[in-house]
Amino acid sequence: MKQQTIVKGRLPVNWISMPLYERGAATILTILLIGMGLISVSLGAMHVVRSTQERQLAAHAQVNAQAGVWAAVEAVRVNLQSLTKDQLTTLAYPQTWTITGSDSLTQQANITDVDPPISPAVDFKITAVITARDTAAKASSSVEVVYSVEPGIVGGPLTLSGVLDFYNDLRTTGGITLNAEGNQGLDFNVDGNFTAVNAGISGTGFRHINVTGNIELNSQVSAEVLRGRNIKLTQSARATTIEAWGIPKGEEGSIGEENDDKKESTCCGNITLEAWVEPHVATLVRANGDVKSTAGKAVTILARHNVAISGKGADAVQAGGNVTLSWPENIGDVLAGGNLTVQANNKSTGVKAALGKVSCPGGNPGNMHTIKTTSAGNLDPNCNGTTDSTITPPVITPVKKVTLARPVVDAWALKESANYAIEYAANGTLSVKVKNVNGIANGDYFLGHYGKQEWYICSNVEPVNHQCTTEEKSRGTPFCKNNYEDTIWFSPDKNKKILDIKADSTPAGLLPGVIWFNGTLKLAGGPFFNTFIATEDILTYGSFKVYSVNYGSDYLINGSSNAICKNQTAASFPKFVGRYPSNFCSESLEFIAHPLGNIGLLAGGYSQSNPNTYVGGKITLGNDTNVYGTVVAGNILETSGASHIYGYVSAAGLQAVESQENTMVAELKIDLTKRPANYTPDKIPNTSNNGGVSSPAEAVVLWSRYR
Fold first, then answer.
1. Looking at the whole model, is its pTM more than 0.70?
2. Which of 198, 201, 272, 603 sits at a 20 to 30 Å CA gap from 158?
3. For residues 29 and 14, what is the distance between their CA atoms, to the nearest angstrom?
4. Which helix (H) or strand (E) holds 36?
């Protein structure tokens, strides 16, 4: 038998010639070698698969981190775009922002540099290192970004619509007097009902008194135009033009009854004149409903419904409905779209015409007037009149509804603009954020004292007694000072969030500037050279006097005093020298006016936890209060003593509680006859979310790189 040779494969060449036991061992060895090869191949394949999976997981995690970091880049851009010029100017660095919005990523932005614009450029250069970390996948990504941020252009301050603006009912038993330069006409608005009982509404400058509700006045009124839903004037009340905008009952859009005091009522457009004010004559009386005149004279009476006249009468009357003349002293032309009843004396002149029936219960008094109607059947024989088929009904233009746009008053929007923003810390101490004050670095401090007489701006205080640490006394900055040791400047009440500020000695001094407080302010004494802002209420008591920041720029009117930049109180308190609000003063100590500086007192703001809830906004002016600035109450105003305001008054009614009303139980005097050049009382900051910005801000990514 010929021996077989295997050319290919792994078996021995002389296989057949081997002994049987050798061939068995070789077989086993071959199988082992093949198994080991298969294991090696399997392990290699598994390693390749695992490596591929790890690379894919790492790549996926890195992609997630990179996506997160670029999302953070956009979030920072949007945030920078929302900042005002002042906020960009004072943006601190380095500082870290934490970005929320992704559960799996930790995103942060470290602001490393802020370069303000150099003219003619207007954009800020903001440098930030932005990082996103995926802690589960142990991956991160960092990007360094330079933003170009151009602040929005503010369209200007809010202009108050009237020297007096009340957006809830106004009831006064005191007097309101306005004195304006050159008898300048100014408006007085009430969004609600206006009632004046035994009170005078007088002065030199009222123009339009616009009321969305009913008007009832039994006191002196001095106005060019008086406009309301329904109007009743008695005793010495007067106006040159009187108009009722209400919608007569039964007509489309009419709601309620004539004497309905509810805000949603629109009925009925009636005017009742029971006032004798001689020799005053109302030039125009115009009503969408009825007119009843039993006293003083009017030149022209126009009513879309009925007219009833006695007393002094009128020169001309037109009515869409019936006209009744009950022995008026003087009566001229009359045109009635309905019936006409004539009881007139011999002083009557002109034509008395009606489309309906004409009756003369007392008989025709003579030939001092002509009576006409459209047909003989409509004419009472006693009237001795004629027929005229060409008589047409009068066309009377309706009085337009009074609508008022209430301002948004939000003290929180003004916090960043304050020179001193005061709040209660958790431990009951008074923290103060100082900003734009010459000689004091911007930052967070505390208000504390070394005794009753004066309080300081210091870095540490004891929480129980509000005392500054002893070592700060020599280097601390006085915030306020009374002349006498036993007087008390601040009386804090953390539990009620009230801060009582009292300057009750002469002289007394408080650093000038804008003071903002989170809570309710109680103010007494003075003079203060400040703008006071409170997130809740403001109450004045005792004898109180404040000059707003703009007014205080020249509070003596004659140019000899600058109590803000040159610090009027520094003469009495040397440590106050040089402590002025630098945002209101140039390097040469020339005053720079801002709308915020027009405000003397402002109260009220939207809740920080519930933006739809309005908190506070009540200003109560006590006896002998003098405010040289505009008074802005976010809700209502009350006067309980004689108050003198050298500015505008606004009470916005933002709590929207119908039962609340503005009340005046003592005289309120508004005096605009003497104003510093830097003071414009009708201009205040626009604190609405969408108000005041005419050109939005723009922020773009200028440059970026991975780190």
1. yes
2. 201
3. 17
4. helix 20-81
- Residue 162 to residue 227: CA distance in whole angstroms: 14
> What secondary structure letter does DSSP report for 495?
T
DSSP character at residue 379: B
From residue 184, how far is each of 190, 404, 492, 650, 678 by CA, in Å?
20, 22, 44, 19, 19
Q: DSSP label at 135?
A: T
Dist. CA 537–CA 651, nearest whole Å: 12
The runs of H, that is alpha helices, within 541-663 are 549-552
**Could you report the per-residue pLDDT of 259-316, keeping only the tens digit for each?**
888 888 999 999 999 987 777 788 999 999 999 999 888 999 999 999 999 988 999 9
Beta bridge partners of 303: 287, 319
For residues 301 and 396, what is the distance between their CA atoms, to the nearest angstrom?
A: 10
What residues pair up with 334 in beta bridges, in sequence order?
A: 317, 352
Give, in order, the Cα–Cα distances in Å from 389 to each of 334, 352, 354, 454: 16, 14, 10, 88
In order of 51, 232, 651, 707, the CA distances from 137 in angstroms are 16, 78, 58, 19
Give the pLDDT confidence of 401-420 residue by residue, as tens digits. 999 888 899 999 999 999 99
- What amino acid occupies position 656? A
Tokens found for residue 266: 């629109």
Long-range residue pairs from 442-448, CB within 8 A, at least 24 positions apart, any chain:
442/90, 447/422, 447/479, 447/490
185 near 173, Cβ under 8 Å? no
Give strand pairing partners of 5. none
Q: Are 344 and 326 spatial neighbours (Cβ–Cβ below 8 Å)?
A: no
Burial of 136 (0-12, 13-18, 19+ CB in 10 A): exposed
Residue 68, by phi and psi: left (phi above 0), alpha (psi -120 to 50) or beta?
A: alpha
